[in-house]
Amino acid sequence: VLENQDLRDSIKPQKVEFHSLNLHSTLHWQPGRAREARDTVYFVQYKVYGQSMWQNKDGCWGIQNHVCDLTNETSNVQEPYYGRVKAASAGIYSNWSLSCRFTPWRETMIGPPTVTVVRDNKSIKLKLQAPRSPYKRKRGSKIPMTNYYDLLYQVFIINNLLDEQYRVLVYEGKDKVIKIQDLRPGISYCVMAKTYVPILDRSSAYSSRQCTVL
């Protein structure tokens, strides 16, 4: 019995936590401290905070992965959720390992906007598109993150003659089309943008650099 208890403890999943980007939310965990046996499989359940019943996640029942997509199960984004995972090896089952409480709306990371650059004589025109959530409208298009948050765009310009770190904030606001004027011809400019969520005081990573020579 003790041997079984040791095995049960040693295969118990560690560090069960939600990761979420643009409301696409997955549960991650690490194998127990035992060198993972080849036959170790995992079982995932989830529930809304306050409910007594746990739900099985069918697609993550007896899997060998260490990640389970719970995007559809956490689609009521203001609700707090829990996830839990147990392991089985050689017919022995571990106890459940529980995640922290996870509220998608509050905890998801927001991605940067998509930036399209159109250059003109002495100006650059930028088209910004908010990141999209994984959830779809009835017609099938993905719902933009602006449906869930009041988002601002922050646009930075780098003059390549100057130091790479010299990023100037040239715009902050909600406009989807922005014109940056009075730029010098023949100089390479790079543009990057962030999404900013004022209510959470949280910024995205930078978008990829878009460079152009006027």
UniProtKB/TrEMBL annotation:
| Keyword tags | Disulfide bond, Receptor, Signal
> So which domain of life are we looking at?
Eukaryota
Q: Name one Pfam family in it.
A: Tissue_fac
Q: Give start and end of each Fibronectin type-III domain.
A: 9-96
An example of a Gene Ontology cellular component annotation for this protein is:
plasma membrane
Any one Gene Ontology MF annotation carried by this entry is: cytokine receptor activity
Q: Which InterPro entries match?
A: FN3_dom, FN3_sf, Ig-like_fold, Interferon/interleukin_rcp_dom, Type-II_Cytokine-TF_Rcpt
Ranges for domain Interferon/interleukin receptor come to: 108-212
The UniProt entry's sequence similarity note says: Belongs to the type II cytokine receptor family.
Q: What is this protein called?
A: Interleukin-22 receptor subunit alpha-2
Tell me the classification of the organism that encodes this protein.
Eukaryota, Metazoa, Chordata, Craniata, Vertebrata
